[in-house]
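stage 2 :: seqdesign
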């Protein structure tokens, strides 16, 4: 594929092209492909500073904070996407992190036989996990896979591999399998449905770190994702500081005491 110089430093990982920070309109293929929402790269220092501001906040607090700053009903993910498991003692199912996004789409390809070689080729070239290379400590992997049917994009092995790369949890509008093992290992996961089928022959990776929608909400890489037993809320990154400041006042007594003790350590 011929690309202009402005994309000379773009990174191709597997089948995904990771766009670099650019102006509001990006063009590829002599202007035939136009991307209107730019990707912005944040440093780990910037990410960790924002996450510290959200420390201890719940979905309810963040939602109230969004109301205060004029973002009522923005970022509230459909409750159909819910926690796979809940820990009501230590709240380890909760997520506060920075979005890394991926999008899987239904395939229009068919194979005469899904032998081991074909399955390996699909995992390598068509339905890869290229997003692994851009995960970082504090990342939340947000997978848009709403329409990929019976595909299980998340299982017990790959979700733990992602965790080893710094991912603190995953939110998906698609399918999840190996739920017993994921619950056993206590990996935070928020999902729409259970699914049993392998990805090869069913879906394709369309993009990594491009805007996605999940539960009716726009999610861009770098946005703040908060999830707990009440569901999932996504905070636009450019409003994150003021939302966190506005949300702090809504902590309940238990949450406030937990936060104060943690700050004193």
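stage 2 :: out
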């Amino acid at each position: 594929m011929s690309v202009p110089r402005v994309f000379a430093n773009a990174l191709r990982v597997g089948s995904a092209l990771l766009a670099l920070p650019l102006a509001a309109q990006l063009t590829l293929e002599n202007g035939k492909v136009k991307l209107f929402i730019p990707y912005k790269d944040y440093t780990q220092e910037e990410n960790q500073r924002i996450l510290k501001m959200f420390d201890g906040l719940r979905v309810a607090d963040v939602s109230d904070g969004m109301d205060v700053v004029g973002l009522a009903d923005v970022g509230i993910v459909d409750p159909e996407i819910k926690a796979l498991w809940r820990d009501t003692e230590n709240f380890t199912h909760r997520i506060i992190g920075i979005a890394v996004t991926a999008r899987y789409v239904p395939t229009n390809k068919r194979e005469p036989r899904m032998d081991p070689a074909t399955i390996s080729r699909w995992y390598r070239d068509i339905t890869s996990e290229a997003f692994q290379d851009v995960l970082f400590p504090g990342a939340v992997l947000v997978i848009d896979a709403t329409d990929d049917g019976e595909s299980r994009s998340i299982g017990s092995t790959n979700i733990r591999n992602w965790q080893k790369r710094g991912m603190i949890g995953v939110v998906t509008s698609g399918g999840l399998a190996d739920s017993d093992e994921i619950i056993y290992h206590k990996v935070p996961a928020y999902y729409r449905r259970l699914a049993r089928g392998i990805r090869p022959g069913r879906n394709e990776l369309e993009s990594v770190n491009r805007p996605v929608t999940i539960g009716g909400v726009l999610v861009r890489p770098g946005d703040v994702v908060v999830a707990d037993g009440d569901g999932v809320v996504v905070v636009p990154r450019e409003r994150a500081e003021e939302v966190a400041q506005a949300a702090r006042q809504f902590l309940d007594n238990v949450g406030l005491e937990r936060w104060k003790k943690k700050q004193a350590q």
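stage 3 :: structure notes
- The chain is about 25% helix and 25% strand.
- The chain has two domains: 5-35, 44-250.
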